[in-house]
Amino acid sequence: MAKPQDHEKPPEVAALAKHHPRSRHRRRTVAALAILALAGVLAIGSQTTAVSSGIFGSTTAYQSDKDVEEHAEDLVKAGRQTFRFDTFGDQAFWGDTLNLHQAIAGSANGGVGPGVSPKTALAVGLKVDVDALPAATRDAIAAGNVDLDDPAVTLALLKLNSVVGVKGFFASDGSLRSVGIECALCHSTVDDSFAPGIGKRLDGWANRDLNVGAIVSLSPNLKPVADLLHTDVPTVKTVLAAWGPGKFDAELFLDGKAFRPDGKTAATLIPPAFGLLGVNQHTSTGWGSVTYWNAFVANLEMHGQGTFYDPRLDDAKQFPIAAENGFGHVKAPVDLISSKLPALQAYQLALAAPKAPQGSFDAVAAARGKRLFMGQAACSSCHVAPTFSEPGFNMHRGGEIGIDNFQANRSPTHMYRTSPLAGLWSHQKGGFYHDGRFADLGAVVRHYNTTFHLGLTTAQQKDLVEYLKSL
Ligand code: HEC
Ligand code: HEC
User: Fold this and answer.
1) Burial of 180 (0-12, 13-18, 19+ CB in 10 A)
2) Nearest CA owner, ligand 1 atom 43
3) Residue 419 CB coordination number (10 Å)
4) Between the chain's N and C termini, which has fewer beta carbons within 10 Å?
5) Could you tell me the distance, in angstroms and rounded to a whole number, from the CA of residue 245 to the centre of ligand 1?
6) pLDDT in tens, 280-316
7) pLDDT at 79 over 80
């Protein structure tokens, strides 16, 4: 497996590429041809078909079936590591700039304020990976011998790398020096097998307990966020408090819009990151592919250090904050993101949607619901099995599904993406549709019944719900 820096361009090439996208392509092509030629010479010279591949590319022309399978496995393993444990250098933002680590530690441990106890951490939806806890720690927790009101215990959990999606950076004297976040923060949860909030990791599951706004609001220094949004810290706190559990606003730092026209938060639900294989456009408003969005999030939301290019963000009318700050042209001096994108994508696409557990739905009613879904209710005209999104351009205007265009208009597409539906049962908390406007599946079906004049009886609507729960 090649080290990430193997793929990074020398700084002078990177600088050139920034200003001359065409030359960047030409250089890449030339380099790729050179590598291929070299690989050919080596392969012939040594009469070997062994693939000494990096995670991204092979150095030999011929690859056996086994080579390809091993490559896929390497990608998934490397991607899992990134998804779970990589901060992409974002501790420079969450810790070094917002000083979030000081609020976690508390004044008793060299930080500020009361600190974050394990109880508080669990209450704002953070999860603990039981497999990262040594047996002695597990026993002590089970026996009630661990003080879950003590922020020092939170620091110990961070040291064990057991807090899902949060990484502590410690000084040599053991004090918390900084803190960063990982993809798993929002897109993983645990199975609660040890205790509520403590269990085995469930990667790809939406953490609908996580109160991102409350966590960010703890930061002692929110001034950089307020400055970015041309507002003051109290206003930022009001905005963050309005998000609530399971929601985050990925567009706030682009357009500065914090509330919908009806006065409710503009934040959207954290979606699952499983079941995405074969789906074309990603995010509820179809910003791009999985790898597009991964780069977007790592650079612009997590504030990791990398490269990001999207001239659509130069539109100062739609994206005033992004245009002002050049968010469509990010180039950190050291790129900690780009080399990880291929494997990260492979891992995400390998995450299948979890099957609905036996007994969690009425199988007979679900079978009737399936016939309605595929027939009278015409759901399958958009939600096409097995992805339950359209093969092809899976996007619609709000009017086509009977909703407003506020969120669609915060995306360059001005449209909504047909949601993949597999694994719906696992994210019923927080509601459905991008902003959770429908409290449960019954409300979704009632909405379609009215909007599309489907004429479904109450019993038929129930059958449809059972089918949705079975996916
Ligand atoms: C702070 C919470 C948070 C973090 C951290 C986060 N995401 Fe997300 N993610 C979201 C939200 C919210 C959305 C929905 C955005 C939308 O639909 O407009 C989303 C959407 C996605 C989607 C699109 C899913 C779909 O249905 O098409 C993918 C893929 C994704 N995130 C991957 C990642 C990866 C990879 C990382 C780490 C690099 C990451 N996310 C980090 C909150 C987060
Ligand atoms: C015209 C295309 C279209 C048709 C027809 C359609 N849907 Fe949808 N569906 C969508 C789009 C687009 C979304 C995303 C809406 C959003 O995120 O705001 C969606 C979202 C959903 C969701 C929410 C998923 C989630 O994760 O929140 C469910 C459930 C759903 N549809 C079920 C159905 C059912 C049941 C039918 C048939 C009665 C149906 N759909 C018919 C396009 C369609």
Assistant:
1) buried
2) 186
3) 17
4) N
5) 15
6) 999 999 999 999 999 999 999 999 999 999 999 999 9
7) yes
Q: What is the DSSP string of 159-172?
A: HTT-BTTEEEEE-T
| Ligand 2 near 445 CB (within 6 A) | yes
Indicate whether 123 pLDDT > 50. Answer: yes
- Closest ligand to the CA of 268: 1
At 322, the amino acid letter reads A
pLDDT band at 61 (very low <50, low <70, confident <90, very high): confident
Q: Strands 176-181, 166-170: parallel, antiparallel or unpaired by DSSP?
A: antiparallel
Measure CA 371 to chain center: 33
Please calculate the CA angle 190-191-196 and round it to the nearest 5 degrees. 85
Which of 3.40.50.720, 1.20.1580.10, 1.10.760.10, 3.40.50.360 is the CATH number of 363-470?
Answer: 1.10.760.10
pLDDT recorded at residue 323: 97
Domain locations in the chain as residue ranges: 85-243, 363-470
Pocket test for ligand 1, best of 187, 216, 417 (most atoms within 8 A of CB): 187
Q: Residue 375: which residues within 8 A CB-CB, separation 6 or more?
A: none
Atom 31 (ligand 1) nearest CA: 273
38, pLDDT greater than 50: no
Mean pLDDT taken over the chain: 89
- Residue 382 in contact with ligand 2 by CB distance below 6 A: yes
- CB of residue 370 inside a 6 A radius of ligand 2: no
- Ligand 2: distance of its center to the CA of 453 in Å? 15
pLDDT (mean) for 330-346: 96
Question: Which atom of ligand 1 is nearest to 287's Cα?
Answer: 18
- The pair phi, psi for residue 225, each rounded to 5°, is -70, -45
Among the listed residues 223, 222, 229, 438, the one whose alpha carbon sits nearest the alpha carbon of residue 319? 229
